[in-house]
Amino acid sequence: MNRLPDTELVYIPGGTLITATPEEGRALAMAIARHTIHNIQPDLDPLKAGRKVYSANPDSLIAAGQVVAIEFQTIAAANNYWR
Amino acid sequence: MNRLPDTELVYIPGGTLITATPEEGRALAMAIARHTIHNIQPDLDPLKAGRKVYSANPDSLIAAGQVVAIEFQTIAAANNYWR
Amino acid sequence: MNRLPDTELVYIPGGTLITATPEEGRALAMAIARHTIHNIQPDLDPLKAGRKVYSANPDSLIAAGQVVAIEFQTIAAANNYWR
Amino acid sequence: MNRLPDTELVYIPGGTLITATPEEGRALAMAIARHTIHNIQPDLDPLKAGRKVYSANPDSLIAAGQVVAIEFQTIAAANNYWR
Amino acid sequence: MNRLPDTELVYIPGGTLITATPEEGRALAMAIARHTIHNIQPDLDPLKAGRKVYSANPDSLIAAGQVVAIEFQTIAAANNYWR
Amino acid sequence: MNRLPDTELVYIPGGTLITATPEEGRALAMAIARHTIHNIQPDLDPLKAGRKVYSANPDSLIAAGQVVAIEFQTIAAANNYWR
Description:
The structure is a homohexamer.
Chain A: H1 22-40, H2 44-54, H3 58-78
Helix pairs in contact in A: 1-3
């Protein structure tokens, strides 16, 4: 098994949901979504193989976008929407 | 790789969730959803190819509409629903 | 391209999430969901072709119903649930 | 076309999200979900044909259950969870 | 038709969203999700046949888990998260 | 049947939604999601067989990630987002 490094297996990179800006909050949403997948499948080889498939499939891209949207709801609420 | 320009890769165009009107909030929801896809797949060629497929597939259109609906929930809350 | 009229491409018909009644709020949820699809695919021909397919497919109808449910969550919250 | 009666096409049966009990709230969630489908497809014949298909398909039943769950979130919030 | 007993067709078993503990709240979420399916399909025979299919299919199990997660969001909010 | 041990069938491991950190909250979200699947399918053999399938399928991984995202919304709200 070609195991991902531990830094890719942290659930919440940085350890907090609070960010300075919406842009950083969105980057965190993407990172959290990605690290969840890494924890379910920590072997880099099937991840790389899967990447080729889903990144060329519009339905998969839409589904991935939906997960990020849900993660971002949580982070945006945590930051009082950066009002 | 036919890489998208950097302006298409910003996560939150304009850098804020606050908008003057619901119409602008909805446009932002669509932009954020689109830019997420761009960040997952920054190569314009598979995006263009995928566009032909999903824009003619009602199930894909419904799924895309759902992602926008979720993004809009966040933006509408951020703006206190423009009450 | 058989382009939809501009009135079908407004994101938030009426420009507000506030409605007098739950019934009107639900109608707005359906309109917003539909106009999102129109903005992603503004050509009437593939929309009409897709309509025949999805309106006879129970899974597509369930998926469409889910999008309306999510839009309605936002509108109902905006209206303090018409309490 | 074998059109559904108008009573099946009202979006929010009863015209309010407020109910006396959680049981009635859940029944309303199911009715709203069903009436949305009716408004998208108001012809009884494809609905009846689709019913045979989806009610015997576990994935369709799970998807239908998800829509009801989302509608119920809105109704439960409207009723302050009947606390 | 091999109809489920009436106890399996109540929408909200116990008639309230309030529970003593998170564990009981989660059990209620599962019961509500299951009873929704029962109300859509009250014939035990297709339910039993479907059970064999979906309980051996990881995608179906993930989808079922998602419905429970959504029901639990509502119940957890109703109980102020048992803080 | 190769039944999972009782510890894998508790709905809410630890019995509370309150955690010290976002990292622990995310771990709890993953555990709750997993235990829900265990309760629907408590036989280890089909779970192990399914694991091979879904962990190599990007669409399944995205769907699993979505369930965790929804569970985490609840847990993050319960903890006032660890602000």
